[in-house]
């Protein structure tokens, strides 16, 4: 066990398929903070998200992920989830034959339940109380009650799938939420609903890493910290104003500055 902050990424080097993707990422996220991670396509943002949750496809070559004082690299995804990590997928999966309410109840039981002597788990809520909680969160995201009894993401539009991800976030209430391009595929109305849901859930009990290409969602979910990732490294960090500058100028100016810095270092 190590002393540490809520989630600390230290010099993380990650590869997949023989190709190095992350090349020394350092980032600290505490509960109560909202961080935005931005960058051009292929910069490694989604790789970081999946690595944080323990996807087996990614090989850790160097570095640590310290959460609640523990290096969690050897932990499986479900163990990380039980510790309080959550990942909202960029491309949510469809699971035919599994109702959303059943998925959420089982996930809630696995994460919040207290083991009993008979090997089962006692949950803080009864099934009836849980259904009431689920109904409240459906209203928060302007989703009809019928969504709870549909198969997971089966036949959902892109916007419905992203709202369903935030519904899971609302029900499971993790301590650190990693949201991978939650804004992709959303029209402006759905974007506002998703942003309202995230804002309603954020606070001192939850830290958020919001991964996005664009500044538009940050107009509604304003981060305290904005990081820019290029070629597997975080190369710039600033406040909300950095996202506004990226919206106005794109990423080319950062790429040009990095090229100049490289030339200077090599001379």
Strand-helix topology:
Blueprint (H helix, E strand, L loop, with lengths): L6 E10 L2 E11 L4 E5 L6 H8 L6 E9 L2 E2 L5 H7 L1 E4 L6 E5 H13 L1 E2 L5 E2 L4 H14 L10 E2 L5 H15 L3 E5 L7 H14 L5 E5 L13 E6 L2 E6 L1 H10 L2 H14 L2
Parallel strand pairs: 3-12, 3-13, 6-11, 11-12
Antiparallel strand pairs: 1-2, 1-4, 4-5, 7-10, 8-9, 13-14
Helix pairs in contact: 5-6
Using brief descriptors, characterize the structure shown.
267 residues, alpha/beta, globular
Q: Provide the spatial order of strands within the biggest beta sheet.
A: 6-11-12-3-13-14
> What is the rounded distance between the termini?
43 Å
Shape descriptor: globular
Helical stretch count? 8
Mean pLDDT metric = 91
Total E-strand runs = 14
- Largest beta-sheet characterization: 6 strands, mixed
If you compute it from the alpha carbons, what radius of gyration comes out, rounded to the nearest whole angstrom?
A: 19 Å
Structural class: alpha/beta
Give the ordered list of helices and strands.
Answer: EEEHEEHEEHEEHEHEHEEEHH
Proportion of residues in helical segments: 25-40%
Residue windows where pLDDT falls under 50 for at least 5 positions? none
Percent strand: 25-35%
